[in-house]
Amino acid sequence: MMSKSLSNILSKAAMLSVLGSAALFAQAANAEPTGYNQISFNVEANQEVENDQVTATLYKQAQASTPKKLATELNTAMNQALSIAKRYPTVTTTTGQQNTYPKYDDNGKIVGWTGTVSVDLKSKDFAKTSELVANLQQNLVVQNLQFGVSEEKQKQLEKDLIKKASLKFRDQAKSLAETWDMSGYQIINVSINSSGGYQPRPMMMMRDTAAKSSVPVQEFEGGNTRLGVTASGTIELIPFR
Q1: CB neighbourhood size of 127 (10 A)
Q2: Which of 21, 126, 184, 215 is the most buried (most CB within 10 A)?
Q3: Residues 76 and 117: beta-carbon distance below 8 Å
């Protein structure tokens, strides 16, 4: 999704364009709305784009008799993961969530502790990310893997999509006025919203007990994402006088 500030700026620019065209077409564009002859509709501009970014989350789950032993095991696994990740500078690596909770017996007594830690990856380098994921799976388990459009690329494409959606809204408004034998129309309101995002990719996840040997590197195919911008609004048709 586009940022709120960018959305506001681009939406205002698009609506100004639509309003300008409406003023030229409508004979009484500055008239106060009457509440009659109002039509609400929406139009959409879409574009299929190639995903250029991958994100992944891997985690370690462990059990221990005391919180200290649990923390030692989880911290060791995380430190090893971060050490491996440092060999991949094109992949942004950050520590994720860490959770610890007690394990109770039938009498409500604490008999152990369970915890998880995770690491998040983000990169435009699919090959290196795939290699890193394979190496990390010697100690960690893949929780999710997603492909999507980077924020930079999405912002660039949405500028054009907003313009296209605005022009479609204007053309549809004009067509409705002509279809209903009206002299023109005026815009009551318009809102512009974008859609699109990451596509989850299911993966075969390894259990900790089976992750002792090396893991083959998986070739990544990012696929495509359909970005869209919708212009929704209400117009009032203006009859001939």
Answers
A1: 12
A2: 184
A3: no
d(CA 137, CA 75): 16
How many angstroms separate the CA atoms of 52 and 61, rounded?
31
In order of 91, 130, 141, the CA distances from 56 in angstroms are 11, 10, 11
| Own/partner long-range contacts of 205-209 (Cβ < 8 Å, ≥24 apart) | 205/141, 205/142, 205/143, 206/137, 206/141, 206/142, 207/141, 208/60, 208/61, 208/62, 208/139, 208/141
Please determine, looking at this structure, whether the domain spanning 53-148 carries the CATH number 3.30.70.2970: yes
Please report, to the nearest 10 degrees, the dihedral formed by the alpha carbons of residues 140, 145, 151, 155 taken in order: 180
CA–CA distance, 136 with 154 (Å, rounded to integer):
30
How much of the chain is in helix, strand and coil states, percent to nearest 5? 35, 35, 30
Is residue 128 within 8 A of residue 79, CB to CB? The reply is no
Round to whole Å and give the CA distance between 149 and 51. Answer: 5
pLDDT of residue 90: 98
Q: What is the pLDDT of residues 79-115, one digit of tens each?
A: 999 999 999 999 999 999 999 999 999 999 999 999 9
